[in-house]
Amino acid sequence: MDQTPASATHMSDKPLIDGRSDSSGVRRLLFLAGFVFVFAATLALLGHSYGALALLVMFAILAMCGIAAVFGLALGFLHIGPRVADADIAREALNSLPVGMLVTDRKGRIIYANKAYGEETGAAGASSVRTLERLLSREAEASEAIYRLANLARENKPGQEEFRLTRRLGSVGPSSPHWYRASVGPFGEAAAGLQLWQIADITPEREEQESFFKNLQHAIDYLDHAPAGFFAADEQGRIAYINATLADWLSLDLATFKPYSRSIQDYLGEGASSFLRRSGDQRVAGAVESFDLDLVTSAGQRLPVRLLRNATRTADGAPGLTRTLVLDRAPRGDDENALRAAEIRFMRFFNSSPMAIAAMDANGRVSRANAAFTSLFGDEAAMGRAAVSDCLREEHREALRQAVSAAMRGQAGIPSLDVDLTSEPTRSARLYLSANADVSDGSGEVAILYGVDITQQRTLEDQFAKSQRMQAIGNLAGGIAHDFNNVLTIITASVDFLLLNHRTGDPSFQDLLLIKQSANRAASLVRQLLAYSRRQTMRPKMLNLTDVIADMHLLLKRISGDLVKLERQHARDLWPVMADIGQFEQVVTNLVQNARDAMSTNGRVIISTRNVPAEEAAQFGYSELGEGDYVLMEVSDTGSGMPADVAERIFEPFFTTKEIGKGTGLGLSMVYGIVKQSGGSIFVETKPGEGTTFRIFLPRHIPVDVPAAKGELPSPAASNAKQDLSGTASILLVEDEDNVRAGNVRALKMRGYEVHEASSGLEALDVMEEIGGKVDLVVSDVVMPEMDGPTLLREMRKQRPDLKFIFVSGYAEDAFAKNLPDGEKFGFLPKPFSLRELAVAVKEALEE
Question: How far apart are CA 833 and CA 496, in angstroms?
C-alpha cells in the first residue's frame, strides 16, 4: 500500500497557492505607542528625578523594536494585524468546495487555487499548478472553448463552456473520456483585474443524460411500431408527435416531418376537423373522448377510424397537448359482423354530411351532433353544455323554443327558421326541425335539428342590395349633375360676357371673378358626382401604374405633409392596364389625402402595386371580383381606422366623418366611380385602431399593337392657346334650355359665325329643311324632348353623310356613344364650358 508523505498530507489541508496578505491592526499598535509616549512625557513634566531618564530609555527601546520590526516584516517573520491559526473562514469555504477554483490577476498570474482545482487538473503541488488556458490550449477538443473563455476574461465578461476530452485531465496513462464544464468571470467589484476560473468534472451527469435518452429512444421505438396510431397535437391541432404506424396509414414521410409543421386537420374529411378543436376551459383533464370519423390520406383515400383522445393541462391550468389514440375501423374479411359494418357506414354518413345534424332534448340541448353541427354552432352546443338557443341572437331564440315545443307535441311540417348566430364574424343559418317519432326509447330526444349555413347567400344578397342602392344613388346623382350643369353653363357664359365689358380696374371686376371661381368650384363638385355615377368622359390609355405613381411622387409628398412618411413598394414587371391617366391620378391623390387626414400624429402611408394572377385573386374572397388577372394597387395607412358601419357607407356621396368645412364627402365617391368606370373594383379593409387599406383591382390589359410613341399628346387647350377662333361658317345650334341656347348663340355670333338655332331635334330637322341643308356644323345637346341628339345625328346623316357634329352634354361621352353606329365620328364638349372652350371646339371641328 502506498504511503502518503506527511508533507503532502499537510499541503492537502491548505491552499496550493495563497498570495494574499493578512489585514493589519494598525490602530492598536498606534494606541500602545501613544500610551508609552504620554506616560514618559508625564513623568518628565512633573519633574520626577527619573522622568528624563525614563523618557530616553523608552525612546531607545521603541527605536530598537522598530528596527527589529522592519527587518521582521521584510523577512516575512512578522505580520501586521491579528492572525488566525490555520486560515480564515472564507478561504476554508473556498478550499472545501468540490469545484476547482482558480484566481488570476490581469496578467494571468495565479493568485489563488483551491484543493479541488489541483485534484481536477492533476497538480501534485503548488509548483505544478497551471492555468486552464495553458493546460487546454493544446487539447484539440477543448482549445476553441478555452480560447473563447480567455477572450471573455480579457474583456472582463463572464462565460461558460462545456467540452469533452478523450482522457481524464491531468492523467498520464490511458483513461476513459470525460466531460468538463469550465467558466470564467470577474472576481468581485473591489478586486480590479482579478478573474475567477472554475472547472468541474460533469461526466456522471452526462452519463445519466445519455442513459435517459437511450431509454426514451427505446420507448419511442416501442410506440412507433405499436399496432395502433398515435399523435399529440396542440390547441390549434398542429401535430407535435406522430408515430410510425399512423404516419404509414396517412402516407406521411417521417424523414421530412417537422413538429408543428403539419396539422391533423389536413388529414380530416370536410367538416370533421371541428371534432378536434379544443372545447374551452371546461374540458376535464384526463377524460377520454371518443370520435368516429374518416381520415383522408395523402393519396386521397378515406380511412374510417375511431379516435380516443384525452386532454392535458399545464401546471398553471392552461390547456396542454392532446394525446389521441387512432384505431383502424376499416372492414376486415367477409366474416365481419353486419351490425358493426352498418354502424360504421351510418357514422361515416352522419359525420361527413355537410348539413348540420343534431338530436335535441326537451330543454333544447344536444345529445348527439355531427361534425358540421360542431363547426356551425361550436363545441359548447355540440357537447350539450349549452342550449342551441344560446348560440343564436336574442331576437331569434324564442322562435327556436316554439319550434322545439311543436316538435315535442309531434307536430309535422314545422316551418324553417332563418337565424343569425352569435359567433364572430356573424354567421347565418337556416334551421329545419322534425319531431322524433319514437320518444319512448329512453334517450330523451324529442326533435332532430338540421342546419344549413347560408352566410355566403346572405352576403351575396346584401352585396346585391348594396349594389342596387349605389346604382340608384348614382342615377340620382347623375340626373342632378346633368341639370346642374345647364345652370352652371348659363352662369359661366353670363360671367364671360360681363368680363368682356369690364376691365381689371373696374370695381365689379373682382366680384365677377369671384362668381366665375365659385362656378368653377361648383363644376368640380358636379364632375365628382358624374364620376361617382360613372357618367363622365374617360380617355383610357395603356398605363403602367408604377410609372404613374413614380411621376406623382413629389405631388404626393406635398399632399402627405411633413408629419407623415410616404412609402412606395412596387413589384417588377407590372402588367399594363387601361385607364384615364388624369382620372387615375385623382384616385391616388384622394386616397393619400384621406390617409393623411386619418392620422392625428406621425404615421405612414404605403402605396404598393403588384400583379395578381387569377388564382390569387380568387383567394381574396371578394365575390364582386370576377375571374381573371388583375393589377392590384394598395394604399395603406397607420391611422385610427374605421368601424364597420362607417366603412359600409364611405363611398356614398356626401357621407363624411370630417368636421364641417373640411370635406364635401365626394372624394371617395369619385374614387369609387372612376375605378368602376375603368372596369375595376375597390375594397376597403379597416378596423378601429389598426389603420385602413384600400385595394384597387384593375383588369390586366393585353395589348394587340404596342404604340411606338410614348407619352401624352398636348391638350387642345394648350395647342390652341394662341389660335384664331373667329370664323364665317354656318352653324346649327340645338339646345332645349332657352338660356343656354341664347348664350351659346351670342358667343358664336361674336366670333363671326352664322348661327341657326333650334330647341329640339324635330325643330332642327325643320330648320335644316328651311335653309336647304346649307349647314357646316351642328352643335347639339344630347338629352332633349321628342328627339335626342344621337337620333338627330342618324336622321341628318341620311341626307348629309359628311355633316360635322358636336355633342354637348353633362353626361359622359360613353353614356350615349354606345347608342350610335360603330365608327361614327363626332366631337364632344362636356358641360359646363366657357365661351372660349365652345369656340375652340367649333374651330377644331370645322378644321378637321
Answer: 11
